Structures are given as C-alpha cells and as structure tokens.
Q: What sequence folds into this?
C-alpha cells in the first residue's frame, strides 16, 4: 500500500509540473518593406505628412503631401523589426521598430532636433 501511495504521489507531482504552457501573445513579424509605401505625420516639426517608398537596393523615394515634387535623395535598410532610413544626405536619420502593425521610433536631424515618428502602411488604392 505504501508503495502504491508513493507511485501516486510521483504521478501527481509529475503531472503538476507538466501542465500545458500558457500561450504567449502572438507577435506579428515585421513585413519586408521593399516596394511598399509608408506614411508618417511629421507635423510636430512642420514637415507635414510624408510618403516614403522603400525601393529595391536600399533606394528611397519620398514625397511631402501637398507638394508636386518627389525626392530620391535618401537610402534605407531593414534588419528584422528595425528600419532605418536617411534623407538629404543624412540631414535626417530615422530609426523605428515594428510594433502592432506599424513602425514607431524617432528622427534626428543635423541640428540635433529630435521628434517621434509613427510609420503606417499606405492604404491600397
């Protein structure tokens, strides 16, 4: 009888330690931004709404809404959830991380002005 109780105790302790794991929140993986256009509202620093298109080979095209010009003076690179780009020969550097369907982070220009930025995917037309 003592042996049976010992076996039951081992089984109870073993099953308590092997409970089903608690599922973690599913983390959305950052999309590859190549060929995509993303929108940021940079009114905080009076730049307005800007559309950034991340082209093949690290080339960047960007356009301030309400203006007729498009600039290609800039570059970008992505490493997993981290996205970096610069405009106007590194006049402004952007560093953002993917979180909940968008990129969030900050910008820093050559005059040491910093601002926050949220980059959202452009809605399909």
A:
């Amino acid at each position: 009888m003592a042996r049976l109780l010992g076996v039951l105790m081992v089984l109870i302790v073993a099953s308590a330690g092997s409970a089903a794991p608690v599922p973690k929140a599913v983390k959305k993986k950052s999309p590859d931004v190549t060929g995509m256009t993303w929108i940021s509202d940079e009114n905080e620093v009076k730049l307005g709404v800007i559309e950034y298109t991340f082209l093949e080979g690290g080339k960047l095209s960007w356009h301030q809404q309400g203006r007729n010009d498009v600039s290609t003076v800039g570059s970008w690179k992505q490493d997993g959830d981290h996205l970096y780009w610069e405009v106007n020969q590194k006049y402004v550097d952007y560093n953002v991380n993917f979180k909940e369907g968008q990129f969030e982070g900050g910008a820093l220009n050559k005059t040491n002005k910093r601002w926050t930025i949220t980059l959202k995917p452009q809605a399909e037309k």
Observations:
- Helices lie at 2-17.
